[in-house]
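Why does residue order matter? Because the sequence determines the fold. Keep that principle in mind as you read this record.
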Amino acid sequence: MQPFSRLTSKVVVLPVSNVDTDQIIPARFLKTTDKSGLGASLFADWRYLPDGSPNPDFVLNQPHVQGAQILLAGDNFGSGSSREHAAWALTGWGIRAVISTTIADIFRNNALKNGLLPVVVPPEVHARLMDIFSRDPHLTLTIDLPEQSVILPDGTSAPFPIDPFSKTCLLNGVDELGYLLGLEAEIARYEAQRQF
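Structure:
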């Protein structure tokens, strides 16, 4: 995983509440255990027309969001089934952080294990972000993980919570196993001193 520290990016605004994992990545794309290529199926039922051509009205198909790494979503993002493919599809498209007022627990855990930062902000901050980016979708937003803050285009900031272990893993670009492997020398020293 790529380490996450401070990210400044354009923003994809998806002002839809209760987006579930089947909307993020429809079940028909879950036949793989490989992450590669899933970004092409992100929000497939909204992103493509019945004939398979891109839906010009869907936000991911808009020129101004190409290269964006932050998704500003409606309330209750990532509910539904526990498919890890949802996090894989978002990161496969290039999303590094999702901002919402609430993020479903299982999705949040899957996101953290795959280098995707779930950012929960209070409703008033969320409403302000939605307003800012609806008026000017070309602005950028900064997420500072060490400081645990979202820095708005006007320079003001809003804090967000994250547990210390997940923060450490994201900052170092590792999952739980990678974290443990980083302690291999200490584990070996401990094992060598153990009395049986």
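Residues 6-193 form a domain with the Aconitase; domain 4 fold (CATH 3.20.19.10).
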